[in-house]
């Protein structure tokens, strides 16, 4: 058990725990790929040094509870999501559109129509973290017949520019003209599959749907396929598709979902247990109070500020989640946020979307 008497000069009582965190949990973190345990130890110590002495045990506990996805785990999801989720969804659409195929007769649907349908499907990288090339090569037994791969900006870049920029009338007309060319170039495409690594709050998904709703493609369906998502994205998607005036049929599928009990501060949360502390300590409240203090001290002002609703993570998702090459902004900012003199433990790099 950690006590408030731990100091940075003497971490010998938890040194073994820190080593285990490195060897068995964070060994795949890209910044640490060429590191040795001493450097990981120093990084944790440097981060903890910013907190009050009696707060450090709670923060070290939080680090031990971080959900960490390794490269191997994400590669597994890339391998998993196509045959088990995407291909299955396409076969279901084939069955729905062909009355002579019995329900669940996936084999017949594949034999009769799949090659044709995959040729009319566009796979879209929604960000630079989607690993779309790896996805394509991993499934080249099916997708070698399909040359329809692009990034999201290629499809809806003009609409994004119109929405997010102050354009002259002439420039806006030029953007719509370019959009007409894109729509004509892809008139044979009837299905879009949007690939991404992680959606936490649903804001990226919502933006993508809004972009497509402003376009005039010939798509019948749009499949949204993040490798990892959260319950909040699923709930947001249900709200979106409840609308009767959507231009396309949307389907949300995913490789892995972080369940509701991963939210750090929910009362029903079972993720942050009392296993390191006695019953008198409310660990969730302690970490929440520390997070709030760091927000007020470092990130409530200036260029690096966070808005009040996002002080515990973008979209109020409240998770402690890191993957081997980045940290989502839905994670508690005390883990990834830096600036105004505060040093992060797992720095975040903004994705290119």
Describe this protein's structure.
- With 353 residues, the chain is of the alpha/beta class.
- The protein folds into 2 domains: 116 residues, no CATH class; 188 residues.
- 44% of the residues lie in helices and 11% in strands.
- It is built from 13 helices and 8 strands.
- Strands 2, 3, 4, 5, 6 and 7 form a 6-stranded parallel sheet that branches. The protein has a two-stranded parallel sheet with strand order 1-8.
- Helix 11 links the parallel strand 5 and strand 6.
- It starts with 14 loop residues before the first helix and ends in a 17-residue tail after the last helix.
- The N terminus is likely disordered.
Give a short synopsis of this structure:
The chain has 353 residues and is α/β, with parallel strands linked by helices.
Give the SSE map.
Layout: H1 15-24, H2 37-48, H3 56-64, E1 67-69, H4 71-97, H5 106-119, E2 121-125, H6 132-138, H7 140-143, E3 149-151, H8 152-164, H9 169-185, E4 191-199, H10 203-214, E5 221-230, H11 231-241, E6 249-252, E7 256-258, H12 283-299, E8 321-323, H13 333-336
Parallel strand pairs: 1-8, 2-3, 2-4, 4-5, 5-6, 5-7
């Amino acid at each position: 058990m950690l006590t408030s008497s731990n100091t940075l000069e003497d971490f010998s009582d938890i040194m073994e725990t820190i080593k285990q965190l490195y060897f068995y949990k964070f060994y795949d973190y890209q910044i640490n790929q060429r590191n040795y345990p001493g450097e990981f130890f120093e990084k944790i110590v440097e981060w903890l040094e910013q907190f009050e002495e009696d707060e450090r045990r709670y923060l070290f506990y939080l680090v031990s509870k971080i959900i960490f996805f390794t490269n191997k785990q994400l590669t597994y999801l890339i391998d998993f999501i196509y045959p088990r989720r995407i291909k299955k969804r396409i076969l279901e659409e084939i069955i729905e559109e062909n009355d002579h195929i019995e329900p669940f007769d996936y084999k017949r649907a594949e034999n009769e129509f799949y090659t044709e349908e995959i040729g009319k499907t566009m796979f879209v990288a929604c960000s630079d973290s989607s690993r779309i090339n790896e996805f394509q090569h991993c499934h080249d037994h099916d997708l070698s017949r399909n040359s329809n791969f692009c990034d999201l900006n290629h499809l809806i870049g003009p609409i994004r520019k119109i929405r997010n920029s102050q354009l002259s009338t002439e420039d806006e007309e030029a953007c719509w003209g370019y959009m007409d060319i894109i729509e004509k170039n892809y008139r044979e495409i009837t299905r879009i599959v949007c690939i991404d690594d992680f959606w936490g709050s649903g804001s990226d998904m919502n933006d993508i749907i809004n972009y497509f709703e402003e376009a005039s493609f010939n798509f019948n369906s749009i499949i949204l396929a993040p490798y990892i998502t959260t319950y909040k994205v699923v709930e947001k998607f249900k709200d979106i598709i409840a609308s009767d005036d959507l231009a396309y049929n949307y389907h949300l599928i995913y490789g892995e979902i972080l369940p509701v009990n991963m939210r750090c501060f929910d009362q029903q949360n079972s993720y942050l247990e009392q296993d390191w502390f006695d019953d008198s300590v409310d660990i969730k409240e302690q970490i929440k109070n520390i997070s709030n203090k760091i927000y007020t001290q470092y990130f409530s002002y200036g260029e690096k500020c966070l808005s009040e609703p996002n002080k515990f993570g973008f979209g109020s998702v409240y998770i402690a989640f890191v993957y081997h090459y980045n940290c989502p902004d839905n994670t508690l900012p005390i883990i990834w946020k830096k600036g105004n003199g505060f040093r992060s433990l797992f720095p975040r790099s903004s994705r290119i979307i």
